[in-house]
Task: structure prediction
Amino acid sequence: MSRTPLLAGNWKMNLALDEAVQLAAAVVESCRGLAGREVMVAPAFLHIPAVARVLQGTSVLLAGQNMCWEKRGAFTGEVSGPMLKEAGASMVILGHSERRHVFGEDDELINRRLRGALACDLTPILCLGETLEEREADQIFEVLEGQLLRGLGGLDPEEANRVVLAYEPVWAIGTGRTAGPEQAREVHAFLRSVLADRFEKTLAESVRILYGGSVNPENIDSLMAEPDIDGALVGGAALKSESFDRIIHFAS
Ligand code: PGA
Result:
């Protein structure tokens, strides 16, 4: 089963507006002539309309970094799926480690957001990952299985098939430490086995699973050499056009 690699830049709460526009233009340049891979950027909400103008008519995909499960209403501080779509986004990152650990989002809330995304035809990237304590206590598979099954709770196979997963060990995000390709391989294979049990084998084979956590120009080739790693969710190294360019052009 062939899965198109996805290289996704999560800009988090970084960049001034003009910097975001310049970086978007550089990503468009990087993607010229690129075939067989998808590239996505997730700017801060306020920067999405300006970045969308730069990306219009190009192959670069645009994502929100979160969204509300409801389409409209009294949800102070939230942004809805229809608002994201209207602004030009086709994808949305959900359950990112910073949402879970800094803002206290739990699996139930993330599942509501995810079902809201599917309902308005946005492609969700569901992030999962264990903390260092959980890894050291040998709870990694239990934690990831729980996050995955609760995150996909209530979905039918057709809906689950539209989700992209991102395995991001919390201890690897922004720390310069990465799970080695072997560690990521083991986890990605495990996530596919959970998907096969919960849904079906063909679905488990077709869902894309990205790796995230200190991905950079030096480690991208060895990560992407793993058959079960279908792309990368990149934070720090996506903020510089040269390093993201190198990541997009990983050796295949
Ligand atoms: P990082 O962030 O690449 O800076 O570690 C990854 C992420 O948070 O998605």
About this structure: The domain at 6-248 is CATH 3.20.20.70 (TIM Barrel). The two ends are 16 Å apart (CA to CA). The beta strands are 6-10, 38-42, 61-64, 91-94, 123-128, 164-167, 209-212, 231-234. The mean pLDDT is 96.
